[in-house]
């Protein structure tokens, strides 16, 4: 029988345990785990790893010499549980946030009223590398710019949720959310039913319906494709998985051609017009005639077809201006400006390094700060002040002073913890949560779950898979 005597982190929130003992939401799961001996639990962890291996569920880590190393995505079999009441707050908060972010994107690429009214500095938008002037004024279907968002959430010391990041360009990881659930069904078939866990498996159907609804042509069966950079992309497994799940063709740039401002797919029976492209390709690689001339991944003429309204791109081009980490600090102001509402989900306090007073405050307390590049991702280029050497802190200050617009700082927040099966024992590890929100003509829909990412290294607060993180199945219990 497995016993767990946790040493709770006094600075953080533990999802399974409180000072009074196990939380009600976890009582049944913990009982099931404790009824298993360590060998049985270990066998289930091995079974899960084998299933991931056999199905080729992988991601790619890039080393310092830019060599890609393909790895099986680490999966911990102990679920992360969120109650229906907690989820209701998350769901309502994300819907509010995305409504405001979509209005911001529509505004910033058209009338720019939020800038004219002095809510957001014009210089902040103008200096954003992902503000794409070339798509200014393009009319997108239903004025929706964000069709899929992966909003990263963390929990503070009292269990309250904070938004850490808004991922509005090509958010990844949803395939792991779906595969984690399938693996859990295999290794704990009875636990899902007995705990009344909400379903996530209808995500591909919901997303496919939204993609179809965006077709510029009024035809019974619009042609929808998934555009991938190809087999060497770190998320290629996910591209193939989602295309298969939605029953749409997986294409590369060379499979598409633009003729008379319309996009066509090359097939054995001739050219077929494409109506909607779910692209997993960054903006700058989409069209060599507009962006990087040397790009062989995109489609020459694609932006012209997009501008003429003959093809829908998901997500819209230019969304990066809204998930720039310096712009992130203004999202609560966007909610108040566009919706006249108070934010339901709070931001993590954020210091702009362009602001001299805020910069000096951060420099005086760098050991308690995390420094992030405003357009970085994957945990790369991040400085965790409590783990950094004096030399790394000094190098960070030098980089900030050289280009303050490129950095923000946030106080280090102790992420919540959930027990994980580590070397045959249950140990507490830090987690975050990425729910996936889908925005269509009928509003925002969020499948009840998400990708719980785990910092598998003891004491680490960095959950990114590229930095050695793993994941858990996320249960929303009814």
Automatic annotation (TrEMBL):
Fetch the SUPFAM superfamilies from UniProt.
Glutathione synthetase ATP-binding domain-like
Give the superkingdom in one word: Bacteria
What are the Circularly permuted ATP-grasp type domain coordinates in residue numbering? Answer: 79-455
**What is the protein name for this chain?**
Circularly permuted type 2 ATP-grasp protein
Taxonomic placement? Bacteria, Pseudomonadati, Bacteroidota, Flavobacteriia, Flavobacteriales
